[in-house]
Amino acid sequence: LLEEINLSSGNFLSQNIIYNTIEKIKNIYSESDYFSLSIEHKITSSNKGDIYKNLELVFDEGEKQTITSIEFKGNKIFSDWKLSRLFENTKPWKWYFFWRGDWDETKYNEDKEKIKAFYYNEGYRDFYIVSDSIEFDKKDIKIVINVHEGPKYHYRSIAWSGNNKFSDNELNKAIGISPKEQFSKEKLDFSISEIISPLYMDLGYFYFQIIPDIKPIGLDSLDVVFNIKENNIVTINNIIINGNDKTSENVIRRELRIFPGETFNRKKLLDSYRDIMILNYFQNVIPNVEPVGEDKVNLKFNVEEKGVGQANFSMGYNQLYGFTGGGGFQFPNFRGKGQNLAINYQRGLNSNSISNNSNSFGSSNTNYSSNSTPYQSFSITFTEPWLYNTPNLVGFSYFYSQRGEGANFSMPFDIFQNGGSVKFGRKFKWPDRYSQGSWSLKIQKTTYSSNDKELLSNWPGLGVPYLQNEKWNFSTSGISLIQNLSRDTRNHPEYPT
Question: Which residues partner with 129 through β-bridges?
Answer without folding.
Answer: 147
